[in-house]
Amino acid sequence: MHHLSLPHFISRHVTGREESLFRRDLDDNREALERAIQGKSVLVIGGAGSIGSSYIRALLPYRPGRLCVVDTNENGLTELTRDLRSRSGLPVPADYLSYPVNFAEPVFEKIWRREGPFDIVANFAAHKHVRSEKDQYAIEAMVDNNVLKARQLLELLAQRPPEHFFCVSTDKAANPVNVMGATKKLMEELVLAYAGQLHATTARFANVAFSNGSLPAGFLERLAKGQPLSAPADVRRYFVSPEESGEICLLACLLGRPGEIFFPRLEEAGMKTFSGIALDLLEELGYEPLLCSSEEEARAAMSACAGTRRWPVYCFSSDTSGEKAFEEFHTGEEEVDWGRFAALGVICNAPRRPVAEVSACCDALSALFRRETVTKADIVELLSSLIPSFEHLETGRNLDNKM
Fold it and tell me: What is the pairing mode between strands 200-203 and 164-168?
C-alpha cells in the first residue's frame, strides 16, 4: 500500500483547495483576532473532538493566556494534549488544564465558578450523526445533549457572561429533515434567544473531511482491518478540511455579532459523493476498486482479493431516514450578509424567540421524556410542532442497518 498523506489527499480529492478557504479572512482580521484572544482565558467544551481540537489549534497562535479543555473522552483529551505539545511552533499556555468531565455535571459547574472567569467559551459537545436517530432511546440522548444540556450551559454562562460564546451547529439545521438537524435548529434558537444576555454566535458548516466517526474516517478503519468499503453513491455533500472547520469556528466566535450564524461560501459544483471519495482513496493507495452489487458480495470478495491490488467496494443508493440528497446552509427567509467576509456568509436576521418561549420548548421535551412510554414518532411529532421548518424524512431504516 502506498504511503498516504491525508492532508494532501483531502486537498486534492475532497476540498479541491491547496490553501485554506479562510486564509484571506484570517489575514484581513489578524489584528482583531489578536486583540480578542491574546492573554485571554479560554474554555473549550468538547475540545477533544475533531472540530473542537481544530478550533484549539487555530486559536493557540494568537496566544491566549489560559486554556481549559473539558471532554467526556478521556483518551481523546490525552491525545489532544500530546498532539499540542508535540507540534513545533504552537504556543501552549503555561496555564493549561484538561478535564474528562461532562459539561452538564456538578463538577463542571465547580470548574466554571472556581477556575473562571473565562473570557471566551466555545462548546463543541454534541451528537453529530444522523445515525443517532435510530429509536426513542438514541433520540432522547441526542435531544438531551444538543438541546437540554445546552440550555443548562447557557443559563450558567448568563450568570457571569464571557466576552464571547460560541456553539457549533450544522448545515443540517437549515430546513431539517432528520432529528439531528432538528435538535441543532432548536439549539440555534436557544443561542439566539440568549444572545440578548450573552455575546453568542454559532456556525453551520459542511462535513469535515475524515473527522472522527465520519464515513471517510471509516474507510481508513476498513482498510486497516482488511475489510471492504461501502458508501452511498447518490448523497452529495459539501466538505471542509479539519483545519478549516476550526478556522470558521474561530472567526464566528471572535468576529461575529450577537445572534449571528456563520457558514462557508462553497460552490455546489464542489460537492462530493462518499462513493467518489472511497474510489479516489483506493486509487491514491494503489488499489484497483472492485465494484460489488451487495454487502454479501463485497465481504466474500475480500478473501479472494487478499494479496492482490484489488479492493472490494459496495456503492449503493441511500434509503435511510433523514438523508437529504444534498445540504444547504441557509433558507430563503434568512437574510445573508455576503459582503463582510471573503469566504463566509453571515445570517444576520434569524428570528429570535424570547428565552421563555424556547425554554418552554425544552420543558415540553423534558415532560415527554418523563412519560412511562415514548415512541420515536411521539418525539418527532413534538419536534415538528416546536420547529415549523422540520419535515422529517422517515424510511424505517437507519445506518445501523448498513455495513
Answer: parallel
